[in-house]
C-alpha cells in the first residue's frame, strides 16, 4: 500500500471524526449534553450573580484586550472542553451584567428567561429569512408579527390585514437588525417618493430633473445619531440634517421654530424629504407632539417619519399609549424590540402606512427573491437575516398585551419615582421631564442647590427684573452673573462626569451620562441618565444608587471647592453671600 494511499485514509478518518463529532445531530450524545449543561450553568451563574460580583469586570478594558491580542488564527483545533472553559473565564466573566437591577444606565437590560429558549431555537434552525427556500414557516411568522405591529400603530380593518396576510406581493414593513437600519429604510422610501426614479437614475440626475440644488431631512436636536448616518449613506449628507431646537426640560420639538424653518426652506426652494418625530428620545425619553407634526407634514406635503425605537412599546399599554398620540398619522414608524419590548438583541421593525411605500426598493435575483415569490428579502435593505422575529412573536404569545402593559406601567413608575427622589433630595436636580422611563438629573452640592435654583430663576426672567435682581444680590452686571454661573456649571460638569466614572468603576450600579442644553446662556450641563425599566428595580434600588452618588459627589466637590473659591472672587461671593 503506497504512502499516498495511507495518507488519504488517515485524512478521511480525521474528516470522518470531525463530521461525526461536530456535524452529526444526535439526541443521545452525552458529550454534547455535557457541553450544553456546562455552558448553561456558566451563563445562569453569571446572570444570578450569587457571589455579588460587580456589574463590570474587575479587569480594565486594556487588561481584557491583552487576552485577545493574538492576530493569528489557530492552526490546530482544540477540544470543546478547553475552548468552552476559556470562553467562561475570559468572555462570560468579563461581560457586563446588563440584566442586573442596578444597571439602569442604558436601554439594554433585563429580558424574560424564556427568550433563551428562542435563541437556542433560532440558532439551531438557522433559518435565513431572506428567502422562503431557507425559511419556510419563519417567513409567515415574521409576516404575522409585522401585521401585529402595523395594527398596533395604524389599526386598519380586519379585511385589510386579511388581504395582507394572503397577498405575497404586499409589503407593509420589514423586520431588521436595529433602529438604524429601520430609519435608513424609512428615509430611503421617503427620498424615493420625493425624487421618483432616484434609486435608478441617481442623485445628480434626479436633483437636476426636480431643479433642486439641495434636499434636507428635519428632526429635533434630540434626534438619534442614526439619522445623520442614514443621510450620509443615502448621499443626502450629514450637513443637510436640519436640527430644530427643543423646549427646555420637556425636550419636545419647538413647533414655532419648525414652521419658521419650513417657511425659509420653501422660499429657498430646498426640497424637504422628511420631518422626523421623536417618540421617545434616547437621551431624555421625551416624545414630540406627533399630532401637530403630522398636521404640519400634511399641510406641506412632507413625509412624516416617527422614530419610535424606544417609545413604540407604549402602544401596548392601555394607560400610556396616549403619550404617542398621533403616531397613526405617520408615513413610517420604527420600533425596536430589543429596547422597551424587553427582547434580546437584536430585533427592530419598520412599518409603513401605505402598502406600496416599499415598492421603489423592490429587487430580485435569478437564484433567490424571484419576482412573484414570497421571499421577504425583496423589500429589505439587508440580505441574509436571522429568524429574530420569533422572539417578538413568542413573547407576545406568552405575555400578551396585558403582560406588556404591566411591565411598561412599572417602568414608567420607576422613572417618576427616581425623579421624585432626586428632586426632593438636597443634593440633586432633575434636568428633564420624565415621560417614558428615562430620566436625567445631576448632582449639586447641598450648599449650592437652592442658590442655583434661584440663579436659574433670575436668569430666565425679563431683562428689567433680571437687572433688578442682580443689584439686590451684589452682582451688578449681567455679564458678571453669567460668567459666575458658567464657572459653577463648568465645575459641576466635571464633578458629574467624574462621579459617573467612579460609580461605574465601583461596579455596584451603573448610570450613564450625557450633555444637555440648559437655560444658561451658551452653557451645557453634564447630566446623569437613568433608564430604570428593569422589572426588579424598585424604590430601595433607586435610593441606594442616589446614596452612592451623593457620597461620590460630596468627595469630589470637597476637592474642587477650595480651588474655585481661591481662583475666582465672584465665585466666592456666589458660594458665600448669595442670599436665598
Automatic annotation (TrEMBL):
- This protein's superkingdom? Bacteria
State its cofactor: pyridoxal 5'-phosphate
Q: Does the keyword Transferase apply?
A: yes
One matching Pfam family, short form?
A: Pyridoxal_deC
Gene Ontology CC terms, in alphabetical order: cytoplasm
GO MF annotation: an example: carboxy-lyase activity
Family to which this protein belongs: Belongs to the group II decarboxylase family.
Q: Which PANTHER family match?
A: CYSTEINE SULFINIC ACID DECARBOXYLASE (PTHR45677:SF8), GLUTAMATE DECARBOXYLASE-RELATED (PTHR45677)
Kindly provide the name given to this protein in its UniProt entry. Aminotransferase class V-fold PLP-dependent enzyme
Amino acid at each position: 500500500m503506497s504512502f499516498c494511499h495511507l495518507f488519504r485514509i488517515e485524512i478521511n478518518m480525521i474528516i470522518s471524526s470531525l463530521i461525526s463529532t461536530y456535524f452529526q445531530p444526535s439526541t443521545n450524545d452525552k458529550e454534547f449534553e455535557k457541553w450544553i449543561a456546562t455552558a448553561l450553568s456558566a451563563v445562569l451563574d453569571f446572570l444570578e450573580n450569587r457571589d455579588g460580583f460587580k456589574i463590570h469586570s474587575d479587569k480594565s478594558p486594556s487588561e481584557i484586550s491583552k487576552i485577545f491580542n493574538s492576530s493569528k488564527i489557530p492552526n490546530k483545533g482544540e477540544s470543546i472542553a478547553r475552548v468552552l472553559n476559556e470562553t467562561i473565564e475570559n468572555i462570560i466573566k468579563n461581560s457586563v451584567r446588563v440584566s442586573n437591577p442596578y444597571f439602569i444606565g442604558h436601554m439594554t437590560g433585563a429580558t424574560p428567561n424564556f427568550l433563551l429558549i428562542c435563541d437556542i431555537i433560532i440558532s439551531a434552525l438557522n433559518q435565513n429569512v431572506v428567502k422562503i427556500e431557507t425559511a419556510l414557516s419563519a417567513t409567515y411568522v415574521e409576516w404575522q408579527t409585522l401585521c401585529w405591529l402595523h395594527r398596533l400603530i395604524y389599526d386598519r380593518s380586519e379585511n385589510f390585514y386579511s388581504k395582507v396576510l394572503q397577498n405575497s406581493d404586499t409589503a407593509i414593513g420589514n423586520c431588521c437588525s436595529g433602529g438604524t437600519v429601520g430609519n435608513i429604510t424609512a428615509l430611503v422610501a421617503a427620498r424615493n417618493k420625493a425624487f421618483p426614479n432616484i434609486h435608478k437614475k441617481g442623485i445628480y440626475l434626479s436633483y437636476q430633473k426636480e431643479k433642486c440644488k439641495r434636499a434636507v431631512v428635519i428632526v429635533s436636536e434630540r434626534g438619534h445619531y442614526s439619522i445623520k448616518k442614514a443621510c450620509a449613506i443615502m448621499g443626502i449628507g450629514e450637513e443637510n440634517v436640519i436640527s430644530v431646537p427643543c423646549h427646555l426640560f420637556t425636550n419636545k420639538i419647538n413647533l414655532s421654530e419648525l414652521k419658521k424653518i419650513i417657511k425659509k426652506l420653501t422660499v429657498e426652494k430646498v426640497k424637504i424629504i422628511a420631518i422626523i418625530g421623536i417618540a421617545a428620545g434616547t437621551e431624555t425619553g421625551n416624545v414630540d407632539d406627533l399630532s401637530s407634526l403630522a398636521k404640519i407634514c400634511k399641510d406641506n406635503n412632507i413625509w412624516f417619519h416617527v422614530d419610535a425605537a424606544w417609545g413604540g412599546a407604549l402602544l401596548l399599554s392601555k394607560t400610556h399609549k396616549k403619550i404617542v398620540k398621533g403616531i397613526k398619522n405617520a408615513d413610517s414608524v420604527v420600533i425596536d424590540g430589543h429596547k422597551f419590548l424587553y427582547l434580546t438583541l437584536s430585533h427592530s421593525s419598520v412599518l409603513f402606512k401605505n402598502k406600496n411605500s416599499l415598492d421603489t426598493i423592490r429587487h430580485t435575483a435569478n437564484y433567490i427573491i424571484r419576482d412573484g415569490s414570497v421571499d421577504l428579502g425583496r423589500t429589505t435593505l439587508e440580505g441574509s437575516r436571522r429568524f429574530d422575529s420569533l422572539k417578538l412573536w413568542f413573547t407576545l404569545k406568552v405575555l400578551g398585551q396585558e403582560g406588556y402593559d404591566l411591565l411598561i406601567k412599572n417602568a414608567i413608575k420607576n422613572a417618576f419615582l427616581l425623579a421624585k427622589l432626586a428632586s426632593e433630595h438636597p443634593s440633586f436636580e432633575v434636568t428633564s421631564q420624565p415621560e417614558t422611563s428615562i430620566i436625567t438629573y445631576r448632582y449639586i452640592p447641598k450648599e449650592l442647590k437652592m442658590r442655583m435654583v434661584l440663579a436659574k430663576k433670575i436668569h430666565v426672567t425679563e431683562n428689567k427684573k433680571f437687572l433688578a435682581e442682580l443689584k439686590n444680590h451684589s452682582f451688578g452686571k449681567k455679564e458678571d452673573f453669567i460668567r459666575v454661573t458658567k464657572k459653577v456649571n463648568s465645575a459641576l460638569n466635571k464633578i458629574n462626569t467624574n462621579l459617573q466614572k467612579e460609580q461605574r468603576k465601583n461596579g455596584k450600579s451603573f448610570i450613564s451620562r450625557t450633555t444637555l442644553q440648559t437655560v444658561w446662556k451658551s452653557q451645557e450641563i453634564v447630566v446623569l441618565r437613568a433608564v430604570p425599566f428593569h422589572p426588579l428595580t424598585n424604590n430601595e434600588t433607586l435610593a441606594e444608587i442616589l446614596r452612592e452618588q451623593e457620597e461620590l459627589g460630596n468627595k469630589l466637590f470637597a476637592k474642587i471647592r477650595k480651588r474655585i473659591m481661591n481662583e475666582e472672587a465672584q465665585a466666592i461671593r456666589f458660594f458665600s453671600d448669595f442670599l436665598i
